[in-house]
Amino acid sequence: MNEENLHELSVEIGAELKAQGLWITCAESCTGGLIAKSITDIAGSSAWFDRGFVTYSNAAKHELLGVAESTLEQYGAVSEQVVHEMAQGVLHAAGADVAVSVSGIAGPDGGSAEKPVGTVWFGFAGKDGRVLTAKQQFSGDREAVRLQAAVFSLQTALREFIKN
């Protein structure tokens, strides 16, 4: 995976979204805006992307996306339950057709035995009410984990919610 893969994927997603008249949004934690950047690197992206959220802290996840404080306390930010609520929250907040959410541990610190560095949870939501979650374990340094997470996010959104 490299930035060229991410760019090519963003071009493909943009073409599909534009052709279908769909909008995508994202709620990012460990990727820190990389997904939104890759989408908006494509000329004309204002036709399929209006806004995204970088919700790095638990407070931001709660305040901007409506993730329940009890969910954050019980499961932690890097969990299936949190990305599920993040995806639904950002879909609603942005009024989009497709939403992607990401929360993980990019490293080099912050990992644990249960959630080692490279653990990333993803949430995907569609206006049709469908929600999908997935967990990946990536390797490499912080930049590599973030890049792999961004690519996985867009690949999955394209396959499961845009081209289906």
From TrEMBL:
<dbReference type="GO" id="GO:0019159">
    <property type="term" value="F:nicotinamide-nucleotide amidase activity"/>
</dbReference>
<dbReference type="InterPro" id="IPR036653">
    <property type="entry name" value="CinA-like_C"/>
</dbReference>
<keyword id="KW-0378">Hydrolase</keyword>
<feature type="domain" description="CinA C-terminal">
    <location>
        <begin position="8"/>
        <end position="158"/>
    </location>
</feature>
<dbReference type="InterPro" id="IPR008136">
    <property type="entry name" value="CinA_C"/>
</dbReference>
<dbReference type="Pfam" id="PF02464">
    <property type="entry name" value="CinA"/>
</dbReference>
<protein>
    <submittedName>
        <fullName>Nicotinamide-nucleotide amidase</fullName>
        <ecNumber>3.5.1.42</ecNumber>
    </submittedName>
</protein>
